[in-house]
Amino acid sequence: MSDSLLSLRLSVDYPGKRGVLRDLSLEISQAEVLGLVGQSGCGKSTLALAILKLLYLRGGAAEGSIHLNGRDLMTLKERDMRALRGREIGLVRRHHRQGSRQECRKALMETLENVSLPAEEGFLKRYPSQLSVGQAQRVLIAMAVLHRPLLLIADEPTSALDLITQAEILQLFAALNRKFGMSILYISHDLLSVATISHRVAVMHQGEIVECRSTAEIFREPAHAYTRDLIRALPVVPRFAAAAGSK
Question: Are 60 and 49 in contact (CB under 8 A)?
Fold first, then answer.
């Protein structure tokens, strides 16, 4: 793709477990939301760690290439990756912003507004136990987007939320994508949530991308047997509920 922000080709092994990712190839365009879907254990979170070059935390090793905005991350040393995480790839870090106290505060307030949280002193003084689950999730997102990164990785961000809060968080990701042109890698085992905001969907199975096309094409004409299984497994609205809703 000529407008590719991220392109990679990777194989990943863990001690005692080879082929966690097997010659996996993936691209994300500028300002694109790419959904990555697959069952638990298929390698989705491993891919996220590989992009961030954090596999060493789990003893993993990667071979291949990861190009972000034209730069091969595989060639960077850890000190260079520390400077990149949080600024070019969305990630929470201890020190997020340089500048005066007033400039940092202004940036923080703007970010809270961008994720629909109260930009006020009282909210900042709350303890984590005083936040709802949805508010806590928005705080984490605010921390990740404070620097307006080129790429935001969201790994199962709605899995512990109720349906209404899930919908609000999905709307928030879509709004961040539209407002800032932020590319998002949205990772989930939930095909419906992926389809809600994704321009394209990549389907992962046993460490490989078996299919990657537009969301409409994935649902209209799934090409791979595993994708068809995922779609067949989606819940359907019972007939009596549909009939009741039409009254």
Answer: yes
